[in-house]
């Protein structure tokens, strides 16, 4: 029989076991990384279609304070995470933003990104770019208002997850028309940004499109980061140079893609500006598990790619603390452990990149076998076949480095 732990002793138990886990970085070290904590992740109450909330609400000022204690130096938010929908674009919005500005300053946290909610409110039921002109005019105002909020909070990035841009029933909307209309809304936001930044003599923000393959519509018009890149280059955007992408690790995995390959395509297009980091499973719904809890090896590979290609944008912790984690656990376990796994994987990626065995094997593969008859496939294959064994050797080495086996962690029978 195991001993029950009474309610009053449970936080102390979690705190003690978390400390016993070790492997955590100091707030100062964590702050060196461009990691942002979303308001919506920290204040998520665990609710969903089949789920009642399990946690109580957490106000922005408290989120900012807790992130600062952990050492997360950046904060991101939806417009409606901080201003109720009916108070947007009113004097109350300004008061709220002033209060948040004070909380940010007091805690030494910066706002990195703002984003518009275009999925939750009933007004978006038929998508933010549907048939009715008044809905689209409201969508434009909302996005332009997000731009203003971003400037006020000093954000460098604005993210657009279009949410309900899609449909439940085929044949109701004209997809091409809907995309044209959505582009007009992004254009309105870019124009607003240019006007505001010109007037304030500041730089315009980086506008980043985020795709998701399923949810919250049955069919979505921009389901993948590649679709977003095509949209940026479609000729519909008035300022394609202002628009890049915010891939989300899990959103790419959900449709069966290799997230690392999706990131590589965005990198090559010069459009990888912002990155939502989390974890989950292929071909399942958007479980938004914290980074590295499901696919640490894949994450190691992702970070090797980003380090090798000098990605310098934010890593936005777009996960949902699970319903089984308490309010206390969100800031004692969810956020610090997510940051620490991320930093550890980042450092392991650096180690793997400079590992002498991987370096030598990679160079050998790139050197090839030397000059052989260039017209004879069989001769080329025979000349190289021993080199190709290095592929599996490199894969083994990566797992060794990930698990620390190269440092002598061996198991004997
Ligand atoms: C939902 C998205 C969402 C966006 C956020 C930013 O699946 O991941 O969290 O990242 O709305 O635009
Ligand atoms: Mg996201
Ligand atoms: Mg998600």
User: Strand-residue fraction?
Assistant: 5-15%
Q: What would CATH call the homologous superfamily of the largest domain?
A: Divalent-metal-dependent TIM barrel enzymes
* Spatial separation of the terminal alpha carbons: 31 Å
Largest sheet: 8 strands, parallel
Tell me the overall shape: globular
Query: Portion of residues in helices?
Result: 40-55%
Q: Compute the average pLDDT.
A: 97
Number of domains: 2
The CATH architecture assignment of the largest domain turns out to be: Alpha-Beta Barrel
Ligands: D-glucose, magnesium ion
Q: What is the number of E strands?
A: 10
The unreliable regions are none
CATH topology of the largest domain: TIM Barrel
Which class of the largest domain in CATH terms?
Alpha Beta
| Total DSSP helices | 15
H and E order: HHEHHEHHEHEEHEEHEHHEHEHHH
Strand order of the largest sheet: 8-6-4-3-2-1-10-9
Report on this model:
With 413 residues, this protein is α/β, with parallel strands linked by helices. The protein has two domains: 26-353, Alpha-Beta Barrel (TIM Barrel), CATH 3.20.20.150; 356-407, no CATH class. It has 15 helices and ten strands. The strands form two sheets. It has an eight-stranded parallel sheet with strand order 8-6-4-3-2-1-10-9. The protein has a two-stranded antiparallel ribbon with strand order 5-7. β3 (110-115), α7 and β4 form a beta-alpha-beta unit. α4 (60-70) packs parallel to α6, α13 crosses α15 and α14 packs antiparallel against α15 (377-403). The model has no long low-confidence stretch (mean pLDDT 97). Bound molecules: D-glucose (GLO) and magnesium ion (2 copies). Residues 161, 210, 248, 276, 318 line the site of one magnesium ion.
